[in-house]
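Re: the 74-residue chain
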Amino acid sequence: MKQLIKFVVFIIIMLLLLGIGLQHYISQPMELEKIKCHKGRLLTQVEGEGAVYTKVKGFTCDFEKGMIIIEEQS
């Protein structure tokens, strides 16, 4: 009986540590991109907090091999 209680306490402590670690990881702020390419449109982040983007007129973009290729529309 004593070994069973030790095992149960050990499992509870491990679950608590896992929960604390997971909560810490989830609560970290995400790094937002300043410039994005979405469906051929060039988007830039609006100043301030949050993920608010606006379309940049006169430019198109393409995303290839981890790079954003920006082209000016004529």
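The mean pLDDT is 84.
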